[in-house]
Amino acid sequence: MTARYFVETPIAGDEAALVDAEAHHASHVMRVRVGDVVTLFDGSGCEFAARVAKVGRSEVRLAIESRAVVDRELRRDVSLCSALPRGDRQRWLIEKAVELGVRRFVPLRSKRAVVQPDSGACTRLRRTVIEASKQCGRNVLMRIEEPQDVAGAAGLFGDDVLRLLAAPSATDGLAPMSSSESALRPVAAIIGPEGGLTDEEEAAATAAGWRPVSLGPRILRIETAAALVCAWAALEA
C-alpha cells in the first residue's frame, strides 16, 4: 500500500505541503525522496496521488497528480462518549474507534474517573486520530469534541439517536436492532470509568432518554467496553 500522509490545509490546487509531525514522519522515518509517489488526504473525504517535489528540514513539498473521492466511512453515524483510561490505553481506545468507523468522540469527565480529560489530552487524541486514519484508510477524521460531564454529553444527542448507557446493573443487553431502530439510525454510547458512574450521573443520563444496557457478566476495561459497543453498532449497519 502506498504511504499515506495527512495534510492539515485543504488541498485545492496542484501543490501541497507536509509540515510538522507529518513532514518529520515522511522525511526522517519513511525516508521519502524526490520523485516518490505517495497518497495524501485532508479530511475532506478525498485521496490525492502526489509526487514528492522537494524534501526540506521541516517541510516536504508535493505535486498533486490526481484526486478521487474515496468513501470508507461506516454507513451508520456512531458517536462515543467515554471516560479515558490511563496511558497507552487511551491510544488503543482511539485507534479502535477510528478503525470501527466512529464519527465523533466525546471525552467524558466523571467523578470516579482516574483520568480527567483536558486540552492537552484532546490534542494527543486528535494526533492519534490522524495516525489511525492513515493506517486504516479513512479519509474523514473522527472528531474529538471538547470534554463533557455526563449530563453535558447526554444533552448532545436528541430523540432521533439510539442512546445507550453502559451500566453493569442493567437487565437488557446489546441485541439486534428492531425494525424501528434499524434503517441506519444514529447510535451514541456512554462508557463510564472502571469505577462506574455515580448514581447521580446514571440518573442524569437516563432522565435524558439514554437506555441502560449490560455488556455481560464480566468486568470490562474502558477500552474493551467501548470497542464492544462500537463493533456492535458497526455490525448492525
In words, what does this structure look like?
With 237 residues, the chain is of the alpha/beta class. The protein folds into 2 domains: 4-69, Beta Barrel (Ribosomal Protein L25, Chain P), CATH 2.40.240.20; 78-236, Alpha/beta knot (3-Layer(aba) Sandwich). The protein has 6 helices and 12 strands. The strands form 2 sheets. Strands 6, 7, 8, 9, 10, 11 and 12 form a 7-stranded parallel β-sheet that branches. Strand 7, helix 3 (119-136) and strand 8 form a beta-alpha-beta unit.
What is the element layout, followed by pairings?
Layout lengths: L3 E3 L8 E5 H10 L7 E5 L4 E10 L3 E11 L8 E5 L5 H12 L4 E6 L9 H18 L6 E2 L3 E2 H5 L7 E5 L20 E5 L7 H9 L3 E3 L8 H15 L1
Parallel strand pairs: 1-3, 6-7, 6-11, 7-8, 7-9, 10-11, 10-12
Antiparallel strand pairs: 2-5, 3-4, 4-5
Helix pairs in contact: 2-3, 2-6
Low-confidence stretches: none
Strand content: 25-35%
- Radius of gyration, in angstroms, nearest whole number: 20 Å
Number of domains: 2
Number of helices: 6
Based on the model shown, name its key terms.
2 domains, Ribosomal Protein L25, Chain P, alpha/beta, 6 helices, five-stranded mixed sheet, Alpha/beta knot, seven-stranded parallel sheet, 237 residues, single chain
Q: Summed up, what is this model?
A:
The protein has helices at residues 20-29, 88-99, 119-136, 150-154, 199-207, 222-236, and strands at residues 4-6, 15-19, 37-41, 46-55, 59-69, 78-82, 104-109, 143-144, 148-149, 162-166, 187-191, 211-213. By secondary structure, it is an alpha/beta fold. It folds into two domains: 4-69, Beta Barrel (Ribosomal Protein L25, Chain P), CATH 2.40.240; 78-236, Alpha/beta knot (3-Layer(aba) Sandwich).
